[in-house]
Amino acid sequence: MGKVFTSIQANHEEFIRKQRIFFVGSAPLLEDGHVNISPKGHDVLRIFSANEVAYLDLTGSGNETSAHLIDNGRITFMFLAFEGPPLILRLYGKGEVILPDTPRWKELIPHFDLLPGARQIIYAKIDTVKTSCGFSVPFYTYNGERDTLQQWALNKSDEQLEAYHKKKNSISMDGIVTPIGEQFVNAKS
Predict the structure, then answer these.
(1) Predicted confidence (pLDDT) per residue in 47-58, tens digit
(2) Which of 6, 20, 170, 182 holds its CA 20 to 30 A away from the CA of 138?
(3) Does residue 150 register a pLDDT over 90?
(4) Are 166 and 119 in contact (CB under 8 A)?
């Protein structure tokens, strides 16, 4: 059934590349802090090596993953087989937030299609890969990507997107300031 690896194997990479959705899990160290699980669509995930992955993170109504990475760095990626043979694959590691206009952004962004609403890159060093059976995961059929977020972002000016990020993406629901929030604090200084 389940197996544990120290890196992404070739068959894992092949499986990951076929997935149309993945999930990102994170949590603060606070005892009463909230665990966050975010679904990610579009072609935003990149595998850089057997122990390095990153995804282009698009604007959302919150920014919990970013806050949790600042708090403790822990991140988990989960991929599910909705078609074909059953499988659940998880990547465990430590992540960091890479903001636009930084040297690291300039290094990584050429690997992605820059989608409307892109706000940051989440980069992770993976130390554990775990597979499990996935026998109870139902079959689903992929019908296409939603373009709602991209259309929303295209209808905003840079100033409007910045104002939205400041209002909705600066502080987590547990009160942790995100890297986006730190930008606004530092801009005042």
Answers:
(1) 999 999 999 999
(2) 6
(3) yes
(4) no
The token pair that represents 71 in the structure block: 């708090």
Q: What type of residue is 141?
A: T
The phi and psi torsions of 141 (rounded to 5 degrees) equal -110, 130
> What is the SS3 assignment for 124?
strand
Cα 33 to Cα 71: distance, rounded to the nearest angstrom:
11
Token pair for 62: 């919150």
pTM of this structure: 0.96
pLDDT one-digit tens code per residue, 66-107: 999 999 999 999 999 999 999 999 999 999 999 999 999 999
Q: List CB contacts of 75: < 8 A, sequence separation 6 or more.
A: 24, 25, 26, 65, 68, 69, 92, 93, 94, 95, 122, 124
CA separation, residue 153 to residues 43, 70, 88, 105, 173 (Å): 17, 26, 32, 20, 23
